[in-house]
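User: Run a structure prediction on this.
Assistant: Running it now.
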Amino acid sequence: MGQITVEKNVAGIEGLCVITPAVHGDNRGYFMETYSQRDMEEAGININFVQDNQSMSVKGVLRGLHFQKNFPQTKLVRTIKGTVFDVAVDLRAGSATYGKWYGVLLSEENKKQFLIPKGFAHGFLVLTDTAEFCYKCDDFYHANDEGGLAWNDPEIGIEWPQLTGEYKGTASGEGYTVDGVALNLSDKDQKWVGLKDTFKF
């Protein structure tokens, strides 16, 4: 594992990994390997990634919590500009940590990556003016297969940083702010329900 360090089973949740690449810098800038199949396999991670995705979001955007119902994906996520708080929630029905969440700051400065196995809901909150977010998937996108989980479900209790507001019984973003910026959710993401009514793998 010459170019990465891997923290496995973070927060005691089997399969979740935080990966930190080796960054080689000098007065010209820096270089790093953003992905090496060899290094991943040496770390015991054997995944065949087939698709890369990238998005840009502005401050206050919360995307999630999303999962794929019939074609679940393993995702390797990172931020190449700005900072996001990235969250995974265990939805594996037989898991000892079902319903448990873990979040990590991903930024252009720390260059960390978050490996999220199949069977998790995933989402992120943008904490800087803009953020560019990219991720690898081990299955292709399948239309009409997306499910979701309420980002503010009190049963899960995600502690989103810099977010203020009062839970009103739904996933609506009304009244929530991030450093004074109104929380920005898609219409779809404001309609998801809580854990007790959500699909299990």
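The first helix runs from residue 37 to 42.
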